[in-house]
């Protein structure tokens, strides 16, 4: 898979500095969109490799994991984090509830950065099993999956496949 879109390593490195600039400066620049996609893909790949390598129940994602998880379960006590759909995450009601949740974490660095989330936590990242969410949504859902034991099967299922 050519995630760099032909930009090359030098272009990606110089592009990384650009990504810290205000979005208003860029308009609809496709090379910037490509760099955002590459960054999101790289994050997903690193995270999945972590899930395949360690017991997810003990994985710490940020220094604020306890707070993020607590607020998430207060705001979404019944959300089934094991199996999600775009409809559950992005219908008009869900958008409002998520917006309110995200606002509570405006102080968190990169809280709104676009991040890939697996819809079914028992499967790996793929076009069919991924959706784009704000970083704080990703963290909240993945923290719940880790703490509630739903990501435990990933290590057993995919570690063997990745070792070969």
UniProtKB/TrEMBL annotation:
Entry GO CC: cytoplasm
Pfam families: PBDC1
This protein's name: Polysaccharide biosynthesis domain-containing protein
Residue span, Polysaccharide biosynthesis domain: 32-154
Residues annotated as signal peptide: none
